[in-house]
């Protein structure tokens, strides 16, 4: 069968390359029984739409951020908690292990089978006003965030002015001062040219939200056990490839924004930021009591 | 096969007179059914197509335009135009064109322009000895300048159809000169015809009258300044500036001009809802339709075809324009922007054309389609307002077609026409 | 243009009332939309606290404006179509085509209604961001649109069949 794959990124993005290599490996190992075509550039719809489509079996596989999945799959929301992972390597380790297992269970219950965890780096704040070194530096800044209670709560708990806004409006809005800044990973900060208008990039690394190569449960159930094993294996191989490509891409983006005159600052002590997030965690855990053990599993890991 | 079903069902339904929006929806549903997709994907795509943040500017622009229309701004603009250009040869034709330039800067809707200005000006023109077909043709062709002069909800539709990444404020700026250029070309055509038919010039009312009518019209014109200026200066996003334009128009017509009655307000709101819904339902089912076009890789295939015919950019752009003109003869603007942008924009980009310039070119081109038979909304409305038979109007419309074609050629092949102003102020 | 008997007229005026109600609800949604954006800008500049629900509420309201307005447009027959080719065939054939279009639209409306209900069930556990209400409230717009189109186009089609010799195909009138 020829599978249909959804991808929002351009053809030469790390995710896109890894997806193509995934499909090539699957085609080869199944002897051409399972092949696929990947529709890049989001021509088959935006991310929330595509998540719905994969659940309905309209598209067979795709690569999603766990962020927008949170609206329909509460388990995936756990990784949208600020500062929940200590580092990218820790995220790899936990997602490839029992944390990924637990989140994956929640996804399968909603019709999505994870095949491999991809890297989307760490998101940090950027703005056109001042470098951020402490939570108090966020105070009063108009910061664009994705439409999600957690991200709004994160900025508000530092007394910032959280402003949900369509992604496409952000560049012009920073440029003209409708908002002061936003937050994102280095490749997005660079490729959207936001670095031209928001010159302070402060490496708060507050959100490490993994992405997922996944398959529609409806498609998955049509596969033989051997094909399923091949898909899982190819998913993991492609995840390893994507992580490597991502690291390289991230470094290239950092070089480019610094050459473009951006002031990048590391955060000497992240503890005050983490402490400021207490209300976000309290509210989330109060609203999702059955996720307490999963949150604790991640937070207590080293 | 799926693609054949999609296009065949669509074509058949359009030919028998099914509203275009639903022809797209039904064609998409048929193709989804053929592909074995769950039927509800048609409607998931349709809902997703409408829930797009940048589209929110459309109801705002339309509402602001309706408020100005029902709140008495059109007559004030005509008065100002009369005072300024009425004394030229063929004075009322010049007034007609100049009013459209001003009105287009507020409403961005050609049909609103024709019904507002046409009902004011065509009877007066007939009275002063202008041939009815001439009066209608001037009204109809000049109304499409309003599509290109900012603000314009069709620019929003283009920006959305292009898949984001195109700045609406840049499109706004890029439309100014082409819009004025269209009006100048039309004015020249009207001037030549006026000399030939010995149409009269009106007496100049004196600078005092110019000043008074300007003072009366300028507060209305500020609606456009708020929308465009608010966006450019960064006080508002495009969407917010649309909302503020509507709020300002409401307060102005209610408290300053005092011409907005409750009835007029209700007419403006319901009128805005009707227009918005008509555009939005097209956008909704166009997104189901476009999903399938993407799935069948139509843009890439068509692009390969065009490029295989010629690799000369001038020829390819000419072909794109001819295709758009032919499609524009049988279909309406919004639907064509939505269907054709994903197909032709990548080709134009491949030729090194700026997407903003491509957008303006497309708007001018499809605007001409609104004045051409067999399907020309503007032509139909203009003939209805001016009580002229369509055949009658068509006999003498060609000089105006030539004028717009000239503007189209300049927009297509001279990037500076659209890109100079944005480069200056962007 | 359709049906003269009092039963038909009663049905007609009921359908008119429903279609007017659609336009009124959509107009109120439009006014709310303008007002919330005023509040959004006021909040961002004056309170320095942007109301975070405006964006998502607006995306919800626009669905109702679009789909309720479109349903009323079916009743009022204001959607843009190409009637040129139809106008060229003999009158009887024109009338048959017009009835077929009504019935096709009604069938499409029914499919829209059923698919909409399925979408609503499917989206019940997905929350709209920032509003924290089920996604089904968004799909309710297209679901009602389907039901209304089924009603408007279906009733008109049936009335046109029942009174087939009493009406004339009129050239498509544009909403000016
Ligand atoms: Na005019
Ligand atoms: Na036309």
Automatic annotation (TrEMBL), chain B:
Coiled coil: none
Stretches assigned to the TRAP C4-dicarboxylate transport system permease DctM subunit domain: 8-416
Pfam families the UniProt entry points to: DctM
Keyword annotations: Cell inner membrane, Cell membrane, Membrane, Transmembrane, Transmembrane helix, Transport
Entry's transmembrane regions: 47-65, 101-122, 171-193, 241-257, 277-299, 305-327, 334-352, 358-385, 397-421
GO MF entry, a single one: transmembrane transporter activity
Membrane topology: Multi-pass membrane protein
Function noted in UniProt: Part of the tripartite ATP-independent periplasmic (TRAP) transport system.
PANTHER family for this protein: SIALIC ACID TRAP TRANSPORTER PERMEASE PROTEIN SIAT-RELATED (PTHR33362), TRAP TRANSPORTER LARGE PERMEASE PROTEIN (PTHR33362:SF2)
UniProt similarity note: Belongs to the TRAP transporter large permease family.
NCBIfam families in UniProt: dctM
Subunit structure: The complex comprises the extracytoplasmic solute receptor protein and the two transmembrane proteins.
Name the UniProt record assigns to this protein: TRAP transporter large permease protein
Species in which this protein is naturally found: Litoreibacter janthinus
Source species taxonomy: Bacteria, Pseudomonadati, Pseudomonadota, Alphaproteobacteria, Rhodobacterales
From TrEMBL, chain C:
Entry's transmembrane regions: 21-42, 57-75, 96-120, 140-159
Pfam family, one: DctQ
InterPro entries referenced in this protein's UniProt entry, alphabetically: DctQ, TRAP_DctQ
Gene Ontology MF, one: transmembrane transporter activity
Domain Tripartite ATP-independent periplasmic transporters DctQ component: 34-156
Family: Belongs to the TRAP transporter small permease family.
Protein name: TRAP transporter small permease protein
Gene source species: Litoreibacter janthinus
